[in-house]
Amino acid sequence: MTPKGFSFGGARCGLKNKRNDIGLIVSDREAQSAGVLTQNVVRAACVDHTRSVLGRGRLRAVVVNSGNANCCTGAQGVKDTSRMAELAASHLGVSAEEVAVGSTGVIGHTLDMTKVEKGILAASKKLGPDPMPFMEAILTTDLVEKWALRSLADPQVYIPGDKPDAGEGLIFGVAKGSGMIAPNMATMLSYIVTDLDTSALDLQQILNRAVSRSFNCMTVDGDTSTNDMLVLMANGASGLMPNAGDFEQALTDVCVSLAKQIARDGEGATKLIEVRVKGSGDPKNVARTIADSPLVKTALFGCDPNWGRILMAAGRAGVPFDLNTIRLALATRDEEYLLFQDGAPAIFDPKRVSAAMKSDYVIVDLRLGEGEEATIYTCDLGYGYVRINAEYHT
Amino acid sequence: MTPKGFSFGGARCGLKNKRNDIGLIVSDREAQSAGVLTQNVVRAACVDHTRSVLGRGRLRAVVVNSGNANCCTGAQGVKDTSRMAELAASHLGVSAEEVAVGSTGVIGHTLDMTKVEKGILAASKKLGPDPMPFMEAILTTDLVEKWALRSLADPQVYIPGDKPDAGEGLIFGVAKGSGMIAPNMATMLSYIVTDLDTSALDLQQILNRAVSRSFNCMTVDGDTSTNDMLVLMANGASGLMPNAGDFEQALTDVCVSLAKQIARDGEGATKLIEVRVKGSGDPKNVARTIADSPLVKTALFGCDPNWGRILMAAGRAGVPFDLNTIRLALATRDEEYLLFQDGAPAIFDPKRVSAAMKSDYVIVDLRLGEGEEATIYTCDLGYGYVRINAEYHT
To answer: Which of A249, B55, B95, B271 falls between 20 and 30 A from A9, CA-CA?
Structure first.
């Protein structure tokens, strides 16, 4: 169940083992488009290409390869990115200026274009309503596919495992994440398509706000990639014209769901961590400092209710607070455990809290005082992260 | 071989297992003193006490316990810190206002003062010229003692394993480090003593500059502690009066050596990493971003010459540079390996570079262009870091 007028394709051309590595999304008509791209000084040719084609605000397709980021590959890399757009365009009967390009994988190797050519042709012949072949094609070290779907009218967000029954006027997003995930960047590959008619709206501004409340509130290891990219296409095929507020909420819901799925599937992660900080000053900065602290992340991996490390991390964010008036708790889906209040540790049973922390979803709730509440999504840091990243040789 | 007029003591009182946990350094006369203390909002009572007594600029002694940080322990913690100073003062026949106090260990538990009292008494009865019992007393997860010694006249810095023959006019420093090490803080416990007569110098200013070029150029995991403290005592017992420049250089040499020893002994570390970045703009920021990147640190642990991750980290520091003119190399003590130049990866044998990276000392050398050179000391990130920090329960 995906938005009207979009089709998806995936093929395996041999850039990586076993899984699809070329993906296509195609709109049967011109789609109003917007995007958020990496701000890293070191970036791939596909980022520049996609920024350029988004300048027109109209796309017909997206072509993505995994297994090779085509980054730090000089003039050849630029040429190969253009060629990917041209190949997709010619098979689909559209213009190369209507095709966004994404790449992900190792850095510094030129693309094997013989394989890529075959892959794009194969994917273009297998277009259909099922997004699964495309989702597989954008994964690298991800363990699971990530998607989120909601309709304009129904606030429910459907995710993997659900059987969507979302009605009409749909927003559907897919993402890949894993390592190198941090805020202030597009932070990963994500493609979001909708059949809503957004022609009356400023799509880029709405997307920027949705991203600032979702993907930019997520961190796995504080690192950000050379190829991060989010592209949104709205083709209007449903004929429904949402108002700006409803559309922004629905889009944000999809983005938040994808961000949480990415954090949960961080390299080596065993759980999704939601860090909530309330207070004046800069609560988002405090939440991010906690979420990026390796000492906090290893304690959470070890199911250790180590409030000392959480407060230590909060204390180095540069935001002043009074230890005597703060409140720190850990929570799971079911229950909350008070750890620190009124300047002293609360009385709690460490074994019981530790057992609860085995949950795959743990909330760190810190209240510094009155003020705004900020949320950052992250994951724990365990042996798996080291294994994946120490043994993933170039 | 330590500076004249200083004696050292250590005792085991049971705050931690097996090793000494109470340490004393005593000067036989008033010593001009300066310090750098943690800037964390969450800080222990001993930090406030030591800041206060350093206000007078004169100390006679330092008392330190390990095994318990006496942090987040409220009014009782403040009282216990004062009591530690008073106990040391009374056994040594000095004033409590002349005694700095340091604590390190777990957060949130009040000190067992019965043990501490016995420990301070025992340490005060065992004072002597050998600093080893003191060094043992300040360690927590450190694997090795850390010290550095140089004289005013001889530029050689002696470190553990050396048999010092340094002449007269000595600067001797000890440190503990391991986890929670990051710049912009005192970053650990360190005590530096000298028998040089610095009465004509601004000791605090000189120390600030030495710290900015040493301890504040070091990071293990980006985290900083509630109890970080560096105290410098200069008692003039050698009768030698150095000029400001010579003294600052000698002090900086000792501080740099201690910082490198701390980075090398980071939790779970297998090697010291020296990140050197040369360029205009903010090369220190670029070096720190590389040094703090978990993806870079795990690659170095895995002996993977993954230049892509290094450039990716450099690229997200927010400092602009041109990929086509930069140069990146890895080096060991013996040899340099060019990885990236003129916008493209260099031709190198990954297996040979990987074998060289098994060294316990690897230099990341990045030249973005003309300009200043900045150096940051750090360590790799391996399974040991996760093991220590996930299994170190409160």
So the answer is: A249
